[in-house]
Amino acid sequence: MLKYKHKETKVQLIAILLITVSLLALLSGLAVFLGSSKGSRAHAFSFLITTIGAFGWSLSMAIFLLLGNEEPSSVATIPIFGIYLSTLVMDLFVLIYTGWKIKWSWLPITISTLASIFLAAALIYNPHFLYDSSTLSTNGNSVAIRLDWYYISYIALMLFEGAGVIFFICHRIKHTTNQGFKRGWKSFLICLAIGWIASGIFDLYLPLFRYDLIWIGPLFIAIDFVIHYYAIIKFRLLDLASSWLKVLSHIIVMSLFAVAYLTLFFIIFMALFKVPSPSTAVIVLNVVMIVIVLLLFPILNELSSYFRSLSSIKDIDLVYFVKKIQQLSKNYINYHELAGFLSDHLHFEYVGLVIDKKLYGSKASRISAAEITHINNYRTPIKGIWLALDDATRDNLKKCGIEAVAILRNAEGVVVGKIMLGRPIGNINFRNRDLPSLETALTLTAAAISSDKGPKN
Q1: Residue 205: Cβ-neighbour burial (10 angstroms; 0-12, 13-18, 19+)
Q2: What is the C-alpha to C-alpha distance for residues 93 and 99, in angstroms, rounded to an integer?
Q3: Residues in CB range of 266: below 8 A, 6 or more apart
Q4: Buried b (16+ CB within 10 A) or exposed e, 404-434
Q5: Chain segment 181-228, per-residue pLDDT in tens
Q6: What is the rounded CA–CA span in Å between residue 262 and residue 138?
Q7: Residue 3 has what pLDDT?
Q8: Closest among 143, 145, 117 to 129, alpha carbons compared
Q9: Angle ∠(242,246,250) on CA atoms, nearest 5
């Protein structure tokens, strides 16, 4: 009984990995299709159908492996159909995807289409062309494959389509001068070759003798499609332009973390506790915890970025600064709050914004109205952003805790105000600050202010 329980939990974990990884592949195809431009929509659709085939293949396999021995053997027919029919769909459309707009590709695609339709119809008409029987037992579910004309034809078609895909990709690599295209298609070729070798061993050859390792092939293929999705985005293999791309890419990355965590947990658990596999309750608990952590991840990431920016006293975290300034520029800007934000993340004890002859400070200051008017009337420097203050003005400002004054000039060269900077936090000399980063941050601040259309606060 204990042996059966361990076998059951192991199969459940394999099923979770199969479904999760194949869902990643499906999301990759969906992201490419929804994110594609009108001109590349049909090409992207062929990649989407390929990933749907991969998902159906893995899902059917997971369902078959999870079937209990109390189920009648006839129930296994549907997932068996799903395994082999989905493979036909996947391999046909990856051939169409890689052969897209290659002149001579119509011939192998036509042959593959006709052969796929024939094999699919033959399997539906008589499943026993493929296998004699299916077994559902505590030792593992299996299918008794018949090494006859059907299975030989099935393998021949897989080899034909695999060779076609290799020729198509090699043709693309040879006939493009774009180095990014070459690298993207080469990575797909290498990963696909590894995936096809794994599938050939574990899903075509070994099932004739043992059926419990068929889940390895889909894992390799699904991961390959996710890697190719990365190549499509990085090397612009397709013309993509949609906000959906960002959302689905985030989901894909989070799901990858979940798969990696679950796999590592399984390995570490078996190594530490010397048992075949964790119990169902432990697996379910880990899945729930993964979901909770992934839901909290954006909040944790935001908090981490916030505290990292605050604690980088000698440097400016420009990545975080740009992100927050972009968010500020989309709304009405409260200039006092903006001055407080600049004081915290540019790391000055005081920041004052002089806009429309008014001062907006990060905190109360001793600067008089006359001094503000005097600063406001200073001539704008032709080059650079820093005001060349006379000695008297500099001494008066230092008494108020002001170290330097700069103009706020946006990217178009328009002056939108001036900024007064207090002493750097951490007893750092102003001249020792990273002035290029500071000037970049002030230019971004000027851009945000110039885009503000709201009431002045």
Answers
A1: exposed
A2: 9
A3: 13, 277, 278
A4: bbbbbbbeeeeebbbbbbbbbeeeeeeeebe
A5: 899 999 999 988 998 899 999 999 999 998 988 988 988 888 888 888
A6: 24
A7: 41
A8: 145
A9: 155
